[in-house]
Every structure is written in C-alpha cells, then in structure tokens.
Design goal:
The chain is an alpha+beta fold. It folds into two domains: 3-244, no CATH class; 247-302, no CATH class. The protein has nine helices and twelve strands. It has helices at 3-15, 100-104, 120-132, 140-149, 158-162, 167-175, 211-228, 246-274, 281-302; strands at residues 18-23, 40-51, 54-67, 70-82, 91-95, 110-114, 133-137, 181-184, 187-191, 197-199, 202-204, 238-242. The strands form three sheets. The chain has an eight-stranded antiparallel β-sheet. It has a two-stranded antiparallel ribbon with strand order 6-12. A hairpin with a 2-residue loop joins strand 8 (181-184) and strand 9 (187-191). Helix 3 crosses helix 6 (167-175), helix 6 (167-175) runs antiparallel to helix 7 and helix 8 (246-274) runs antiparallel to helix 9. The longest helix has 29 residues, at 246-274. The N and C termini lie far apart (59 Å).
C-alpha cells in the first residue's frame, strides 16, 4: 500500500469514515453524470462519511490528459456532497488559472460587472471574484452547447444565476482557493487545486490523509454560505452578461490555424537565410502566428 493510501486509510479510521483503496466510482445516484467525472477512467482511495451533518464522498479520480509526448494519466482528488435543502441553479466555477486553453478560445463564461459608482468594497469584491473564477450558467459544457444551438432554455437564465451572486458568496469565493467547482442536479463537487504534486510529465492533484479535511471544510463552508445567502439581498449594482460568442470562437479557431501554418512555413526560408542555429525559431513563429491569428480572428468576428 502506498504512503498516500496509508495516510488516507488512517485519517478515515480516526474519524470513523468508510475507506476503500479501490473503487468503481461515486455511489451517489445521479452523480456519475457530472462534468467533473466526464473523463474519469479510474478511482481509488474512496472515503465515505458524514461531516458537519452532511454525507460526503471523497476520492481520487484518474483522467487522461494530452501533453507534448502524447496522452498520460493524472490523478485528482474530488469531493462530492449532496445539496439537499438548497434551491441552487446548475453552474460551474472554473478557476481562471486553470482555463488558459478555454480563455485562448474566447470562452470566459458570464461576465460579472458592477457599477463604477458602487462602493469600493463591492467593486473590489467583484474584481477579486472575476480574477479567481469563470462562472458558467448550467455548466461549462452545457453553456457552450446552448450558445452554439441558440437554445437559452438549456441553461439557467442570468436572473437565476444571480441568486448565487450574493455579497457573502462572492466574498467567500474571492478569498478561497479551490479547484473546479460544479453544482449540478442536487450535488456539489469540488476538485482540489492544481499543482499540489508535480512529477516530470505528469501533474497529479491529490490530497492525502488529513489534507483531505481542508477540502472537505471548504466544501461545507461554501454550502453554508450558499444556504445563508438565500435571504440576502443581491448587489444592486451587479449585472451579468453572457460573453460567449460562437462566431468569435469560430473566428479565433480559424485565425489560430491560419496563423500557425503561416508562421510555420515562414520559418523555413528564414532557416536557410539565417542558419540552422536558429532552428528553434520555426516553432516560435508558428505559435506566435497562432496567437496573433486567434486575436485577429476573434476581433474580426466580434465586429459582425
């Protein structure tokens, strides 16, 4: 048994939780369809119990990722808690530090804006939230699908999502560090923050033993804040706008592809003119062309 299994098993035993070193996945009915488990290919260190009067499951989930050298597997710790008694819309909160590829395509979720004349503390709170998270009504996958199909009924309305954008919720999320957060169909799932453990070629995000309790407390704190926010007045100056534009996304993809190939083929004549010692200039030009093409493509489609 590995050290992390020893620690997780010991932590479970100390707290009276149920522990399974091998697992077939979460046992909560309906939870396996959550986006956070969409690409799951393996499970381990599965703990079940009750914490702060809420049942929970926490486990390590294996997913495949694509890297420079091909596909590889990473493990991520995820906690799952039912949102029983809370009337919450479906939504995803994606940490901006983990959404480089999504942001590159121009997919930024809902844009939270506050009136410039609002009190300074409210502006700072909204700015901090926007800096930390991207909010997707209905879920990131569902929001993009609905935007492409122009089917607003597939996702909650902006007014529905506004019910969770209360001062206490924004304040909590602006100061709390978590990974991906998903609320779907009566469940809250939170993934541990990235870069907890790093190895060459593989980036695991796992919590072991007592470290798992920190994520468990964050999840329960968030549910407490959401429960208390039900009777809280929203920020009067806060507005939400859907920033996703399918045409802009398409323009960015096409522009990036054209820019990549132009930069790539431009590098070959420069290679003969400058010399082989500048061979690395080719991928730099290709990537630079892709970034420039993406930027131009999105702005051309934005004006349409």
């Amino acid at each position: 048994m590995n050290d992390h299994k020893n620690e997780s098993a010991q932590w479970s035993q100390e707290n009276g939780y149920e522990f399974h070193s091998e697992s077939e996945g979460v046992i909560s009915e309906g939870a396996r369809s959550l986006d956070i488990f969409r690409r799951a290919e393996g499970f381990r260190d599965h703990v079940l119990g009750v914490h702060r009067n809420r049942p929970f499951e926490i486990l390590d989930v294996m997913v495949s990722e694509h890297g420079v050298d091909g596909y590889f597997f990473v493990w991520r710790t995820i906690i799952l808690i039912p949102t029983t008694g809370l009337d919450l819309p479906n939504f995803d909160l994606m940490p901006r530090r983990e959404t480089g590829g999504v942001n590159f395509l121009g997919i930024k979720g809902l844009d939270l804006k506050v009136n410039p004349l609002a009190p300074p503390d409210e502006r700072q709170m909204v700015d901090a939230f926007n800096k930390n998270y991207s909010l997707f009504a209905g879920g990131a996958f569902e929001a993009m699908e609905a935007s492409i199909k122009s089917a607003d009924h597939l996702v909650p309305s902006l007014s529905d999502v506004a019910t969770i954008c209360k001062p206490s919720v924004l304040r909590f999320l602006s100061t709390t560090v978590t990974g991906f957060i998903e609320v779907q169909d009566g469940y809250l799932a939170i993934r541990a923050p990235e870069t907890r453990i790093i190895r060459p070629g593989v980036s695991d995000t796992i919590l072991k033993g007592r470290e798992r309790e920190s994520l468990l407390n964050v999840a329960n704190d968030l549910l407490d804040v959401l429960a208390n926010a039900a009777s809280e007045a929203p920020l009067r100056a806060l507005t939400l706008e859907n920033t996703f534009n399918p045409r802009q996304l398409l323009g960015g993809i096409i522009g990036a592809a054209i820019g990549f190939f132009l930069g790539f083929f431009l590098g070959f004549p420069l290679l003969f003119l400058i010399g082989k010692k500048f061979f690395l200039l080719i991928p730099v030009l290709a990537l630079g062309g892709a970034a420039l093409g993406n930027w131009i493509g999105k702005r051309l489609m934005r004006s349409k």
